[in-house]
Amino acid sequence: MCFFKPQNIFFLTFFIIIQTSAYPQNADADMIFLKLELEINPEVRFLKGKATEFFRIKNKSEKKLPVKLDLSDSLKVLNVLYGKDTLEFSHKNNFLEIKPQNSWKETDSFSVVYQGNPTKTGLGSVCYSAHDGIPVFWTLSEPYGAKDWVPIKQDISDKIDSVFITIKCPEKYKAVSNGKLFKETVKKNIRTTEWRHKYPCAYYLIAVAVTQYKVYSEFVVTGKDTVEIVNYVYPERYEQCRRKTWKLSEVFKMFCDSLCQYPFIKEKYGHAQFGWQGGMEHQTISFLSDFSLDLMIHELAHQWFGNMVTCKSWSDIFLNEGFATYCEYLAAEKGLGQTSDLSQWRKAMIKKACRNPQGCLNAKDTLNIGKLFDTSLRYSKGAMVIHLLRREIGDAAFFKTLREYLNNKTFKYSNACAKDFFNLVSKVSGKNLDWFFMQWFYGSGYPIYDVKWQQTSDGLLNIKIIQTPSDSSVSFFRCKVPLTVFGSDGERIILKLNNTYQGQTFTMEPGFNVRYIVFDTEGEILTQNPKIEKAVLCTNCYPAFKIESSNASYKINILNLKKFSFYTLKSINSANQLRGRITGNGKIEIKAGTMPEGEYILQLEGINDYYATKIDIYYKKRKKEI
Ligand SMILES: [Zn+2]
Question: I need a labelling partner for 268 at 20 to 30 A (CA). Which of 145, 500, 508, 521 fits?
Fold first, then answer.
């Protein structure tokens, strides 16, 4: 799903709390097939429906218990058919409980016949509106609004294996829904349209729209297959839409190539125009108010992230929204997105993500729709955290993880939770990334940086990084901090400092006179308002050393030991680095063979003191004082 700006319209209008269903004392029915027959006239706020539900009773001991579905009280159930018989039911508090005659068969079914003037809830679950004076009807069930127009089990983890939807509407209108158009007939001014969708589908991804549509198709060849992208657009917007929709074809191919084949390849993909300000990724048919490229890309990406692999619970909604948002970026990287300025895109995401200093990616309050779909967190922060993860594990492991996630036997056409994804990242990358998930997914906020730097008389550049997390749930954010160092003669170097502890100081030899340093010029790190200033970092802490070297080792004796507890030896010309605690006698011993001979920077750190100097390591018998 994607909201149009200003997002606050949505928050103000629909900021309500809804109870989700729970199914205690009821048969745990696994929903397997839904046959939905609807009569809809967008001119009249009244719908009639017959929902035939096929289900499997998972636990034999529950076969005498009622089956419980969600259904709004604004709709009236006329009867529940069971073959030639009817079944007893109760319908209250937006639940429909259907009792078995005696007991359910292992696989069983009934038909709920219902009608009424549906009441919209949440994001506008069922809507009667108009465009250019023409009546339009549409549904948008995410997250808890399917019950407002269809009796259904609103359980995100119980996908229905297939859905057939038949819509009867006045002849002048067209009705669009999920899957393949099976049959369309007109009889006595009534148009009957039959849609068949034969892939597993989460309840909130089923949708119907009815209005006067102009329909046109574009075709995309991916591998050996040709996919129809069918567009149902408002006639008055036809020319405008036609100019935009064709741009999606290349992105469609790119997703098929870099992720995996389009998940609903045997059916179709499509767009249907509706009046809600934004887009919604209904399975095989995204509903859009506008056809901006990023919005089309976002909803298309959901067909993989969200529809084929659906988050297992609403608290993991970032798996849907963070990835769909990041896919806009993946398209832009290939020159197929709305923007070509990648750093500007990242900076915009960072700015939005930082609007919520106490916000957590993991949605804790899933019943509050405003908080659940907080765009700052689930979309912007979600996308940036995915980008940070990519930086952490590298492109090869990142794209391999995405492909494995989407092709995983357990998740494909089913559900995955955040932990499933994290386990896969760790498996593919071979890295323990618990710290990453703890700080960015379970923890809230982001780091706020205070960077101090100093260039010493011997040319060494010391940079100290202090951070204050924006929320107390994370004591320290481990990040790669990007800094650009500018010299007085126009020199420039970009540093990515792996900041792993509070107050960490880095020393390097830039080889020029440093004039100033700029924090993250490219939008690579999730933070805002960094402070960066020139400061004195080594004060009253100039130690003296005695060096003893032999063929076997190189020993550094620190004479004023008290101030320092850690040392780091970093090679100037290679990646060799050694870090350790300074022992009681103040001796650092480097055995020959562990670090090659050469020029090094020796850093000494204490609680308040820091010192760095250049030294030469060699393994020849020699004594020296420096
Ligand atoms: Zn979305």
Answer: 145
